Amino acid sequence: MNQAKIPTRPKLMLVDDDRHLLESMSAWLTSKGYDVSSASGSTDASRLLDEQPFDVAVVDLRLADGDGFQILDYCRRTQAALPVILMTGYGTIETGIEAIRRGAHDLLTKPLIDEELAMSIHRAINQQQVIEENKQLRKQLDHRFGLENIVGNAPKMAKIFEIVESVADTRATVLVTGQSGTGKSLIARAIHRCSSRREGPFIEVACGALPENLLESELFGHVAGAFTGAIGNKEGKFMQAHGGTIFLDEIGTASPAMQVKLLRVLQELQFEQVGGSKTFTVDTRIVLATNENLELAVSEGRFRQDLLYRINVINLELPGLAERQDDIPALADHFLERVCENTGKVFAGLDSGAINALQCYRWPGNVRELQNVIERAVLLGKSDRITLADLPAHITQGVPVASVAASTKQTLKEALEGPERQIILQVLRENNWNRNVTAEQLGINRTTLYKKMKRLGLENPKAIVGF
Q: For 11-136, which CATH superfamily applies?
């Protein structure tokens, strides 16, 4: 028989030296589903805080052995994220200002109204849930966009990783170049996640997707009445990126007038909104990207030379996938795992014939095209392994006949390699790539694990986690 899941009871610390009020409030809050611990003063409250964590603290300002501000300060030192609701029978504007300045979540005036107290506690718990969700989202962003999660064994990619790590915490402008689909946006995000600005916003703007008048408003914002349809003030992307990073993609498409405005922002980090006269100053890191040859654009008069000099401080030129053939198996493996997670399908991997075909293809669409090919193979595949038959015809056309034959004749050893690789990879990830612990859990010695990792292409975590 399945047991019903018991809901979590939020833990409250209630502090008041009025014994009657303390008991009645405790009973009422308990009846509302809270797990309440009571304290009659500062000493008892400090002891409770040392013994266990709480979700909310409700504290009276005037206590026999101190005051609520002392407990508030102690909470900040011991349980920094704990929201503290202060209560007082002598509320003044000065008291309210002091409570906010010292970090109180709320200040309630006695005699308390039940609904007001319940609402304040509810808001405090919801606020903490949002904060915790944001922390988890940041962890997911770190996992997805951190530099360590970009596939790349090719020498050119290794060099890019080194540069990203060395410039991430500088203010230098970075220009990311390369063909469409090579992962310029991902590199920009990795720069942000590797920097001290990682807690700030990452704002991405596709400059080529907007006409000039709309792009200016999008970047710098506008004031009401600046143009037809501007019925209110709008904050631009540069302002939204304050304290973080702004990524301007397809910068080569910017008009001459827009290039002049961007040059000023890059030099001074100052701008005016469309239709406005007030000058704004922002603190943001600027990363730009293009798939155009900007030097050629300068020679043709389509791009300002002084702007090119200003944005080309650090240039990261991403290689096309055809230059990274050794990375293709790892990239394909990553995309296969991602699609399987999203669709619920189970695949053991790609057979040798399919991998050979992928490595022989020239990939004009680069990494993005490979991702689409793997997704198609998973959705249309009939077996538990991707073969040549699951790949588009234009990819398999140039594959030697011997490779096609080989892909249809799979040995027992090849058939077992897929599941073996998945199991070892899963345990390695669970143990944060600690090989000693992984070998112990798998019941094999370390030497055997090392040999298997080498044979299955699991030696370098950077090349496995995903592009």
A: Response regulator (3.40.50.2300)
